[in-house]
Amino acid sequence: MRIREPYDIRDERFRSICLANVDLHQLDASNHWAEGPVWFGDADCLLWSDIPQNRIMRWTPNGGVSVYRTGSNFSNGHTRDREGRLVSCEHQTRRVTRTERDGRITLLADTFEGRRLNSPNDVVVKSDGTIWFTDPTYGILSEYEGDRAEPEQDRRGVYRFDPATGALARVIDDFAQPNGLAFSPDERILYVAESGASHDPSVPRVIRAFDLNEESHVGPGRAVATIDAGIPDGLRVDTQGRIWSSAADGVHCFAPDGTLLGKILVPEVVANLCFGGVKRNRLFIAATQSIYAIYVNAEGMPVV
User: Fold this and answer.
1) Which of 21, 35, 189, 267 is deepest in the core (most CB within 10 A)?
2) How confident is the model at residue 1 (pLDDT cuts 50, 70, 90)?
3) For residue 216, what pLDDT is reported?
4) H/E/C letters for each residue in 285-301?
């Protein structure tokens, strides 16, 4: 399926980002709830989670769609570490793992202060190799995306894991449900999506920004952007510092100051997204049952 010129321009600056001669392509429609896309440039493939079907899927430009891993422990978000290895958040096991080059799975984090994590959701890696992830309770709320359980943590936080030392720290603890996260290009700002309105309409539907110093100390948060359709889930930042967020009606693009520049309209609720392709100028979109892709006049930040 192709959708021609699916743009909602709110600010003239968005026109230069849109490409008038491209379509929104549906690459796959076999998922129950598509999440966590990550691009592997060296393998020329996209991986993503189909959480309820407990599998990780793969798409290649020449080979199409295939199953990358079954029995994924209801994985959600993925990224790559500084050595190019897959890092995953698993709902069912309530842990963060790394897939080694030989296929072995290495446990990175599953407890904090002696208690099990809630259900790690999304993950990013900083240039110093530290792994940052969110830990809401979505994976333990029902049997659909994990195993129903009572939370053991007293907060739904954001964590920083140092693989060099094994140290795990909770760096933010005042979210209703923290979700997608991304660094600014200079890594001086951490953006985190607040998706708590999924179960509590009173929670603001915002992306919050946290200033970081050279030691990665996290300063007070501030709301930098508001989603006007649905809730923010996954997000990414491009090389110009613009924030690209999932929403109910598509992908919203914000200037670094939070101004809504425009939307790429998608016919399904969007959960997450990532940049990929040879020039990192193709936006891959995980939206409910489908994976979509569209070229834009913007470049995503390198994953490794």
Assistant:
1) 35
2) low
3) 80
4) EEECCEEEEEECCCCEC
- DSSP letters, 146-192, are S------SSS--EEEEETTTTEEEEEE---SSEEEEEE-TTSSEEEE
pLDDT in tens, 190-207: 999 999 999 999 999 999
**Tokens for 25?**
């392509």
The side-by-side arrangement of strands in the sheet containing 64-70 is 34-40, 45-50, 55-60, 64-70
Angle at the Cα of 72 from the Cα atoms of 90 and 89, rounded to 5 degrees: 20
Q: List the one residue out of 136, 143, 144 whose CA is nearest residue 119.
A: 136
Helix (H, G, I), strand (E, B) or coil at 225: strand
d(CA 266, CA 270): 7
Interior CA angle at 278 toward 272 and 281, to 5°?
A: 50
CB 160 within 8 A of CB 187: no
What is the rounded distance in angstroms from the CA atom of residue 213 to the CA atom of residue 284? 31
Q: CA angle, corner 275, sides to 274 and 276, nearest 5? A: 120
Quickly tell me which residue has 């407890």 as its tokens: 111
Distance CA 76, CA 37 (A): 9
Please say whether the beta carbons of 241 and 235 come within 8 A. no
In sequence order, the β-bridge partners of residue 286 are 272, 291
Q: How far apart are CA 123 and CA 75, in angstroms?
A: 11
Q: What is the pLDDT of residues 78-102, one digit of tens each?
A: 999 999 999 999 999 999 999 999 9
Q: Closest Cα partner for 301 from 275, 283, 278, 282? A: 275
- State both tokens at 17: 């980002």
